[in-house]
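Example record

The entry below shows one chain as it appears in the dataset: sequence first, then structure tokens.
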Amino acid sequence: MKRCVRFLWAALLLAGMGAVLCACGTGTAEVGRPALPQAGMLKGAELALPAELSVAEGDSIHAYRLHVDPEKAKEEIEAAFGITLGPPTVDGRYVGPDYVVTIDQTTGYWTYDAKEGYSSLAPSETPLSDEAAREIAEKFVEEHGLWTGERYNTVVTEITGGGGNVPEYSLGKEVYLYPGVEGKTILGVFRIVVSMDCQGRLFSVHKLAAEVGEKVLVQGKPRERLEEDLAQGNYSDSCSQALQSPRLETGGLAYYADARAAGGATYLYPVYVFTGQGTTAEGQQERFDLIIDAQG
């Protein structure tokens, strides 16, 4: 069986770093920095910032502290699934008669998986529609208060079987609910994933997100520093191969969660996200994304 899931490249679990330090005299704080992956296939390319990019310099940008509460996460799981979690196993899991639960003590992120899970899925003559799956997932999240903050986007993907010499067939749906903040997307590890079979029965819920807390004022990076980052390859890109004549077309401020603690807290970090395109060796146009740390 194959899970056909279109993960966003920037939604991978990445390491965090740094500590909370006082930036005396500026009124800003150093909250650590997101450990973005190293430049990929674009490294060494000549890139220029989009002329219309609005750069937030000085102390005009923010990070967000996340509220981490593992005990609340435990109560949330018990209420959502009608279960009582006993003592955890040696490896920190909660194992019930038909489920396995994990709670990350650093982030408060949690997962609930039915023991049968994907192995119990069977094809259906009437596959579940994307719209129906979206409604089921959003209703579950809303009814159990799993996310009450801003939402940016919802993506539905197919769980399929078959492949190779066997035609693919639908086994269910996975719904990705992506929170937002200030109307902006949150990249990295920050999402809720609800998985269900073709009848809409849930068998897995992963809440990889935490309540967004207070703003923390941080120093912004001036335009010339962003240009230096481009020249030196201090960015992360999503290119699948080296491109000819790559160019950045649009860009703006967004946020990034790396699911790691910095100075005993976890944060949403400000980043600049750019979209662009270039030409492959086969002469095809390929679009890509590029991320740069926005802190000065």
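Notes for this example: Residues 130-143 form the longest helix (14 residues). Confidence is low (pLDDT under 50) at residues 1-26.
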